[in-house]
Amino acid sequence: MFGWALIRVMGESMCPILDPGDFALFRRCRHYREGDILLVEHPQFGVIVKRAVDINSERLWLEGMTSKSVSREALGQISWAQVKGRLVWHVRDDKHM
After folding, report:
1. Based on C-alpha coordinates, what's the Rg of the chain?
2. Cα→Cα distances 82→45, 59, 63, 85, Å
3. Residue 56: left (phi > 0), alpha (psi -120 to 50), or beta?
4. What integer is the mean pLDDT of 5-34?
5. Which pTM value belongs to this model?
6. 93 — pLDDT class (breaks 50, 70, 90)
């Protein structure tokens, strides 16, 4: 999508920032920071949304916001090629408003 991706959130691992049913728009960027909410193509878990918690020039670590998330250790280090974009906008599912 030319550096943009729109998804519908499925799980609860990013609550309260993103709830199940919310729509989230991600944009590919040149620079990412710790704390960014990222869309990632994970080799084991597929397309996931997680928060960047430790970044270096080659790889990064991710984690969810709740205990319902897969652990940081289970996710492992993520390569920059797997990052599809940073959260730039989201709309709450009206059931959660």
Report:
1. 13
2. 12, 10, 15, 9
3. beta
4. 95
5. 0.91
6. confident
